[in-house]
Design a protein that fits this description.
The complex is a heterodimer of chains A (482) and B (102). Chain A has 482 residues and is mostly helical. Chain A has a domain of 215 residues. Chain A is built from 20 helices and two strands. A two-stranded antiparallel sheet of chain A has the order 1-2. In chain A, helix 14 runs antiparallel to helix 16, helix 14 packs antiparallel against helix 19 and helix 17 runs antiparallel to helix 18. The longest helix of chain A is centred in the middle third of the chain and has 32 residues. The two termini of chain A are 26 Å apart. Chain B has a domain of 68 residues: Helix Hairpins, CATH 1.10.287. Chain B is built from three helices and no strands. The chains are: A mainly alpha (482), B mainly alpha (102). Chains A and B meet through helix 6, helix 7 and helix 10 of A and helix 1, helix 2 and helix 3 of B.
């Protein structure tokens, strides 16, 4: 082991150590001082974020014999995951007190999950991909059930656990087949064995298919989405917000890394399949979301639909130039999605007065009069998720659609555009409710929450007006990926 | 020596049995057992591939051990969730856990 090895995984190590210390600190803190844990967790995340940003100037390097890697891709994602963690802490802080689930394990579990996500971005070997997947998932299973003894929460935890473990069974079997087909679990060696013609291609295709099923569950792509609405609805809203952004981004990180880097030889076989998966996910997610009246379920179906747009990035994998643009576009869209998703869940938290009664779309009526800034921020997030100006969602969608069209799949872009129109119906219905209907919604005033919502809204609008530095960053991130 | 394909058939059969168990059983613990079968099927595959392709390279064996460890952690999390639900609801039948349906 060398210094380079440790410098490559320094952010992950630091965060894991911080989480462990936090777990111990909780024992010694008196009950009244518990809120400090949130502050400490945020401090740890901010510190790791600083180190990750400082490392972005350093050269790309593999570590631990090629098990992990530090490159532009992992760097971009590290920053995104740490921001996810910070947002997660900000949204949880007061909500957990209100929901009386302020238990000491919460923030360490959140930090462990973020560490798993970061490891996922850095993984260069299928063994590490699997480990990272489990490291990010286990804390989420526990967090989903965190509001025990509230039965919905426990039920959500069990459902998420059973389907998540089921999915990881597929992932392990897929990795085993890939290992058998190519003789290695190292992504670079898999590529080399395919290029040298020594790999068993039918076996490798089967392995890739099983991996796709496993990660399909994680990112909630149709037809592997059935856990999503129940889990998103039942879990504490602060956890749902974190899960909707973090777990999905991590699943796509793994898909982009594994399918982008390790299976280019299979691109011709897999890209039509990916395109169909994307089309089905967009259609199904958006159409079912229209029928929802419960706010949390509606956002759950909306997140399924968003997974469909992201899956479009895998369709143009046969053409080199379109592929690079598609992966950069996916990273860009993941950032836009993370901001809009966190923001809209944050607004749900602000309005969720009675935690046992689920928030419905009608509860947004009159919000513009009661709390104009919150309503304005929610409008920004809804516009961004629909893909309307002036938001990052629009820029990201244009980016993705362009890659798909250049990849020669015009029909997929057409489905994407049509389903965006469908999605406008249910996203804008909330905006109409907020501005045009009369109502007396009860709004919780919480400084951290309002700060997080405001920051997400401002970034979504301002960066969309001048998105070029972000484009360059995303393109730099995928530079060395292929 | 037994040919490699026998191991692969065994593991594929085990995986299919586990998959059937997950999809057909209603009891949360039986579903968990099915998942364990799927993970162990993958382990048989990993060890067999390791033995028959390149025994000098340890990746397959090491991965099988990592899968053990992860499966153990998974059971710990899963059973505690099951117990917690059983205490409150006196049932772990998946169909009866239907507070959220659309």
């Amino acid at each position: 082991m060398t210094i380079t090895d440790f410098s490559v995984i320094l952010p992950v190590t630091l965060l894991t150590a911080w989480a462990s210390i936090l777990l111990l600190a909780e024992l010694f803190l008196p009950r009244a001082q518990r809120p400090f844990l949130a502050l400490l967790a945020a401090l740890g995340l901010a510190l790791t974020l600083g180190i990750s940003l400082a490392q972005s100037a350093q050269e790309f390097a593999p570590g631990f014999g090629g098990m992990v890697v530090r490159d532009g891709f992992s760097n971009f994602l590290n920053v995104l995951f740490l921001l996810t963690g910070l947002f997660g802490v900000a949204l949880s802080y007061r909500y957990n007190q209100r929901a009386q689930i302020e238990r000491g394990e919460y923030y360490p579990l959140l930090l462990f999950s973020v560490a798993g996500m970061m490891l996922m971005g850095q993984a260069a070997d299928l063994i590490v991909v699997f480990l990272a997947l489990e490291l990010l998932s286990f804390p989420l299973y526990i967090l989903s059930a965190f509001a025990y003894p509230r039965p919905q929460s426990e039920e959500a935890g069990l459902k998420y656990f059973l389907l998540g473990a089921f999915a990881s069974g597929f992932v392990v079997y897929g990795i085993a087949l890939t290992f058998g087909a190519s003789g290695s679990t190292d992504l670079a060696r898999i590529v080399a064995s395919v290029a040298a013609g020594s790999a068993n291609l039918p076996l490798l295709t089967a392995g890739a298919g099983l991996l796709l099923v496993g990660f399909g569950f994680k990112v909630a792509a149709v037809p592997f989405h059935m856990w999503t609405p129940d889990v998103y609805q039942g879990a504490p809203t602060s956890v749902t917000a974190f899960m909707a952004a973090g777990a999905k981004t991590a699943g796509f990180a793994a898909l982009l890394r594994v399918f982008g880097a390790a299976f280019p030889a299979l691109a011709a076989d897999l890209s039509p399949l990916m395109a169909i998966l994307a089309a089905v996910t967009m259609l199904f997610g958006n159409l079912i979301a229209v029928a929802q009246t419960d706010m949390k379920r509606m956002l759950a179906y909306s997140s399924i639909a968003q997974a469909g747009y992201l899956l479009m990035a895998f369709a143009p994998f046969e053409i080199e130039a379109a592929r690079t643009m598609a992966v950069a576009g996916a990273l860009f869209y993941l950032l836009a999605y993370t901001l809009a998703s966190f923001g809209s869940w944050g607004v749900v938290i602000a309005l969720e007065k009675d935690l046992d009664r689920h928030l419905s779309i009608g509860d947004f009526a009159g919000l513009a009069r009661r709390s104009p800034w919150l309503a304005a921020a929610m409008t920004v997030f809804m516009l961004s998720l629909t893909g309307l100006p002036p938001t990052l969602g629009l820029v990201g969608k244009i980016y993705l659609f362009r890659a798909v069209i250049e990849g020669g799949m015009v029909w997929l872009a057409v489905i994407g555009a049509l389903t965006s129109v469908v999605s406008a119906f249910y996203y804008l219905r909330i905006v109409v409710n907020m501005f045009m209907r009369e109502g007396e919604p009860a709004v919780e005033r919480e400084w951290w929450l309002e700060f997080a919502i405001g920051a997400a809204a401002v970034v979504t609008v301002v960066v969309s007006l001048w998105p070029f530095p972000l484009f360059e960053w995303a393109e730099w991130a995928v530079m060395k990926l292929f | 020596m037994i040919p490699l394909s026998w191991y692969l058939y065994l593991s594929a059969a085990l995986f299919a049995i586990g998959l059937y168990g997950v999809l057909a059983r209603k009891n949360a613990i039986a579903i968990l057992l099915g998942i364990e079968l799927m993970l162990n099927a993958a382990n048989i595959n990993l060890v067999a591939f390791w033995r028959y392709t390149d025994p000098a390279q340890m990746a397959g064996q090491v991965f099988a051990i990592i899968v053990f460890a992860v499966a153990a952690a998974e059971v710990a999390v899963g059973l505690s969730l099951v117990i917690s639900i059983y205490r409150a609801r006196k049932t772990v039948i998946a169909d009866e856990l239907d507070l959220m349906k659309w």
